[in-house]
Protein 1
Amino acid sequence: MADSLIGQGIRRVEDPVLLTGRGLFVDDVHRPGMLHAHFLRSDFAHGIIGSIDASAARAHPGVVAVYTADDLGDYWAKGPLLVPPPPIEGLVFNEATAGPLARGKVRHVGEPLAMVIAESRYVAEDAAAHIVVDVEPLPAVVDIERSLDPEAPLIHEELGTNLAARVGQSKGDYAAAAGGAHLVVKRRFTYDRGVSGAMENRGIVADWDPVSEKLTVWDTTQAPIPIRNGLARLLGLMESQVRVVAPFIGGGFGPKIMMFYPEEVLVPWIAMKLGRPVKWIEDRQESFFSTTQERGQVHEAELAVDAEGRILGVRDVFIHDTGAYDPYGLTVPINAQCTLLGPYEVPSYESEFTVVFTNKTTVTPVRGAGRQHGVFVMERLLDFAAAELGIDRVEIRRRNYVPAGSFPFNHKVLFQDFADLVYDSGDYLPALDRAVEMIGYEDFVKGGQAAARAEGRHLGMGVVSYVEGTGIGPYEGARVTVEPSGIVRVATGVGTQGQGHFTTFAQLVGDVLGVGVDRIRVTTGDTGEFNWGTGTFASRGIVVAGNACWEAARMVRAKVLALASKRWGVAESELELVDGSVRVAGDPGRSMELGRLAVEANPLRGAVTPGMEPGLEATAYFGPASGATASGVHAMIVEVDPDTAMVEILKYVVVHDCGEVVNPVIVEGQIHGGVAHGIGNAFYEQLVYDDDGQLLNASFMDYLIPTATDVPSIETAHVVTPSPLNPLGVKGVGEAGSIPTGAAFAQAVQDALGSGAPDVCEIPLSPNRLWEIMEVAARSGARPGHAEGGAS
Amino acid sequence: MAIIRDMIPAFDLFQPASVEDALALLAEHGEDAWVLAGGLDTFDWLKDRIKRPKAVVDLSGVEELTGIRDTGAGIEIGAMTPLSRVVGDPRVRADFALLREAAEHVATPQIRNQGTLGGNLSQDTRCWYYRSGWPCYRAGGNTCYASAPKAMNREHCILGRSRCVAVSPSDTAPALIALGARMVVRRAGSESIHEAQDFFIGPATDIQRMTVLRAGDLLTAVRIPEDWAGARHYYEKVRDRGSWDFALVSVAAAFRMDGDTIGDARIAVNGVAPFPVRLDSVERMVVGHAPDEALATEAGELAVAGARPLRHNDYKVPLMRNLVRRAIRSVA
Amino acid sequence: MDPSTEIVRLVVNGQSREVGVPTHFTLLEALRYVLGLTGTKQGCDKGDCGACTVIVDGEPVLACLTPVWEAEGREVTTVEGLAGPEGIHALQDCFDLHGAAQCGFCTPGILCSAAALLAGNPSPTREEIREAIAGNLCRCTGYAKIYDAVEAAALRTGGPQG
């Protein structure tokens, strides 16, 4: 075959539409006669609902309907538990999911109390102000370490506890390992909450057509097919009566996988009930209260090493904040638990986590989904051990890597997909060596840092490793069809939120069929086109749906070869698919465009012989036995201004292994975006809750996501260890960039602060928090460059 | 408590074409009137439905309020002049670069195109309790949430507190104070001129206002005298994010050198008090001295004398001290 | 209750349009919900994200904080109007070439900020590009490829590099 399309950084096929403002996003959907929904939400984090009087709102001109929980009748039901707990011995799990409108109690600020449907959004908000809500406030549970205190108020009385789950996993004998260790380092680590910060808020438009008896729903979801299936069940419709379209989605980063949000349950229902299209678009402030969040954990962890810094064991006990409800089960804390092990051989591991309810917005995965917590703990422990042993921080990592020859490598703990945590492939040393070279490690530690300090500049470097379990099952599917026009149509069920699936899937299919991507039309996230699948999460699009697309294309190719071979009476091996045609190699006279062959394969007369199918179309599914393990090394140099506690990132390097790369430009973009998100988590982004559970910085003016002036240029390089678990050898990359950034940042800042500085064991840092750390350093005499005086 | 609303309620719109007409409207509507300049602060309040004016007086059609002109004794900048025009103005650039730098540090290109100098000076505080619609003193209530024992207050004040601990958010204010600017305030039938530092008032004077402007008043122009034209200057704004963020602490200073010593100085800081703070005592201390490291250190210490941090903003004390020190050092 | 509707004359992407809108409508609402120009996005509606950036009289502004009446008679350019008679804007082509768009939601606003930059400064430095798009949040790209794209577009359209 000519040049392979796979591995080329071709232009994205979706760009001509997106770059001219023609991409359809949910808020761009307008239907004639459309009504608008607005949700009245709780002002209190915790309270007992006395009464809700909506009569004045119902009488407000322009209002069509107002619903409270009591008005929903039998339609009110608690949402599903999306991910049941894995089969781990001794596991405790208390399920608590939310109904579409609060009933009896409110458990976080922003929990919806009433839905107003009106002729315009303005009217709906005007009317909502007339709803009289009587809520008796209760003390709120905010601090995750106080949630289980005997005096803490119960969030779900029926459970009798604020404990959502407790899970222990272990292997080997940690106590023995620690007992015989040369050194045990023990620290407490905290990681605080943030938002996913997709630029597009959530939204939904539902339109019921009473003539065709079909419901069409445009939804900002990462999982259109499960939403369709669930809506059909809820509404008593056949699945074929419901079409869910996730058109262009303005970023997902996790929370748009949550199923179902109250608005997704209610807006389609009310549209059917009223017989008019209904639209709800979340506003940004609302998003800060109602879209799921992540990242709150506190770890007490210890690492046992021998005199050479070889890991003997790790013990980690942590608390995970699930917020007011736990619909997503244990995915996030199990990711943290498993990802802690990283690229290292850890002979003994004892890990126990406690999940607690708090009066804060519900937690579900956000880009990284708990993995960064584990990486942060392990990488920082290694840093502290290296410092105490006097071993170079790069060297201690080198000594502990899983060796290249030992894959597949089984960590013997259970991962989020309920299978053993097995690394399919990897090769960690070359990535480390490359990163060390790119960041200029040797020069920096052997003089660069000291020279800068002599000039009064306080530079620090961070070098960290991580692995990321990606591309888990259960499955995705795809259908590939050659149209009579020669256009190849590809349909798959995963949604797309900017990952470039339209392009990479086209590359995979085009490569197999010898068709240029300009002749391929990919549809994602439209159940009218393809309706088997789960969704876009866990960095799985290219692995699971990508392989399904590729396999479906191969099946179509086989049909093409069989038909052409029969037509021309030549062996299949003599045929080639090039430029949208099939032809006999070296015989230009015997060539046929695929579109014409597709017409021939769908005859109006004659018979389709047994064993053959009409047309040139095939559907394939792919379900990997377990996840493909991506990995990498991040390195960065920071400069800390001791006068202001401001941190500037001077250089950032990523060496990444996501297996075979389908489109290097897209992969780089995914990494860049992840790093930017990680930088935000490390230094800028923190949700500030007060003791009453009130979120104080619910805007992009007060909750700071990085701007162009905060993200450095990022140099990337690749190491390729193909995954043996899928034919393409690919691994996921969507979350990778964000996972080790906090650990790298903390190590670099620690390095800049100099020896004697207190340990940096928390994320996010901020200038004021950093100042407090620097103050302690100053008092101990180690504050960088503060001979000139300064802080008291 | 939490406010989760995002649509502007209806209001009556007035679009005067002259200052006289604007003043008449403001006089007529009194407390019900809201002056709309660039809209950046205004629409935040209106969309949250926290402030609900009945009458919005839009100044965008009042041409006489826009522009920068030479008065013979300095320049006069109309209150409706966009910040980007202040930044790009050749006269400002040549003689009052301190103001240019300060204006350039405001928010983003878009906001500098829309935001006006008058709006930047008159904008309300960013205290997150107050902006969220909590019924605090400043909002007419009877408590300050930001100084409560468990309050989250890393962005609040270390100086000048009086029931309210919010800080002045303006980037241009300290620069104008350092340049000895005067604010021209008109109301129907009268005009008053205020020294820049007197234009801003603290909660001890009136807890519901940030400036001298009362119902019926209009800030029409800022006059900058020649006094500090071409003076050496220092401006620094420290913010959490590299751009698009209000100051944690900012410093603006103008110096006239007398050989190797400081002949005269005007220094102001913002982000530390409910009003921009002119550092008179520091000015007096540094004049007549060489700006060496010892003087810089002493100036920094004096600047923060009397600072009282809250629960979460200790860092503002050394930050302010260090910025003042850097300002003095800059003329060494 | 909606207040009375007013007729406002807008010049959008070179075309004169009359829109009937309530007094309190913003330019963003008029563009998106009255004129059907949905390329301009609403990300926060408070001037905190930059997704709604459009060009008014050559300058990038936030449409969500621009009252519709203030745009009366002024030249408004949205992402739909960036292309010229000879095809798409060099920025659009370079954004594609360099992978500068991911989800595409913030992209129309960034294109407008960048187009206004290049119109006034044909050969910006990387630092100037950063400053010019500092008022546009993007969660997907980490911005690096956006700088590359704007630099490439400047090389294609601008004068000699300064």
Note: The first strand of chain B starts at residue 12 and ends at 14.
Protein 2
Amino acid sequence: MAVQQRYLFGTKGQRLFPWLLLLPGLGFYLLIGVGPSLATIVYSFTDATGIKGFPINWVGFENYDDFLFQGARSSDNLDALKRTLIFMALVTTIQFAIGLLMAVLVNQKLRGRLMFRTLFFVPVILGVAVQGLMWKLFLRPGGGPMNDIFGWLGLESQFLAGSNAFYWVIVVQIWANAGFTMVIFLAGMQTIPADLYEAAAVDGARGWQLFRNITWPQLTPAINTNFLLNIVGSLQAWMLFLVLTGYKNGTQVLGYVVYAEAFGGTGTGSFRQGYAAAASVVLFLLVLVLGMAANFVVARRERKYMS
Amino acid sequence: MSVVAEALSDTVHSDDGGAKRRRILRKVVSYTILVLFAAFYVGPLLILVAASMKSLPEFFKNPTGLPDSLNFQNFADAWELASFPKFMLNSLIYTTVATALFVIMSIFVAFPIARGYVKGASALLTLYVVALFLPPALIPQFQLILNLGLYNTRQGYILLFLINPIGLIILVNYIKSIPRELDESAAVDGCGYFRFVFSILIPLIRPAIATVTVIHAIGIWNELILATVYLTNDDLYPITRGLIVFEGVYGSDWPKLAAAVLMLMLPMLVLYMFLQRFIISGLTSGAVKG
């Protein structure tokens, strides 16, 4: 934590310099960051639209009621909520497992390990537009690379145009972010002292036993970080859906619903920003509750392994 | 005695042989899995490169294989049709202006917080940490920009990128590692606050500045959603938005689209090759600390 220190650069008027120079950065942060964040909760109780000059009225819990229980699209919204949870569960577990496997593999003294590391991390820096379009081409139905590969295997799929589109987006999501999970695991592995392994090897432990008894417990901080980040990140992820499938029933997740309702992406041309703000508060609460539950699990693990 | 020694050396020897076999087996298994993963990662990229060199009929006939010839016509076409120079320039403007402003302002926020030169420094730092636990700002932010009359303007778009709590926390942590004696001796020599930050502090925290610059710039360069929400005039589109619009119009012309995607990727890949260390540390340090 920052501790109050004696100011060294002059007296009186000059003491104001740090404040004056700090204000622009802090001001913008409050104006476009924290302020709007908190205002989201206020907006969720209004009938705001995205149209300038339109009056904004207080409507109480109407948006929430409309979104979850009464509205014409409330059952779609509950489906989206369910889908968000499925998305989270699948992405979190698979990305965690793949990232861990990658990290274990490239943490060995193998030739080319740096090349593999670089390669697995590349998608992380590309951004959704590139990630999405790249896979859209790869997954082109009826005559595309993946279609060919499926053909060789005697399989058939409409990919992003078919009924499994949701699961193909999960594949792309994991492809795009597993490298990030890997790097965090790698950073954790590099802090494990080598003599732990040497001592265990002298005792005759090897392979799986080393992983089970040394790597896994010692990796606790990285495991916890990845676990939390994957949960929170996958609950909020939706942009690949925008590029890969567009807004259509059967694939949309909560984050996409918020965006589409707020900015006319539902195809109805309406900007229901109060309603969308309520949806984003619902999503936020979901992230908060699941994040805190995950944190509870993580804290217990930490007590078990780190004490 | 010699029997014992022989027996000992024997067991050691045979144990070595077993260990060697296991090592080789492990290597084979490791490489097999790594190559499979690598195929999953390189595959889409190679297909993209191959597709970008095919003519449309050739692509429909043979979407997966190698192109008949090295043909860069699609790149030239996409460059023209997608208004790439215009969008690229916009992206460059947004990225450099917003990053430069953000980094300079943040140094002046981070330094007094790290040193405790302003009252309530801890509370200020907390204000940045809790940002990660607040609801998304998207909708009120939109109303704000709209009411400021900055909707669909370059200034308004840049304004959105002047904050990055994780970047600020990285700077604060790094500045804390710079010894305070430095401030003292500079102050004794009569160095002012502003000059100290510019000519002494900034050169010393270059690694942190590089990290923050790189992650902030990558974020802006890749941004698609805010560009979709805030910009409707195609003279103002950054390249990501331009690419999605191009897809909407020429989406069935896959080779041209592939060429356009590659052109958007290229600057990022080059940057990644040179700045890998900063990029990886920057993108993950927020996560590890938080």
Note: Chain B has 14 helices and no strands.
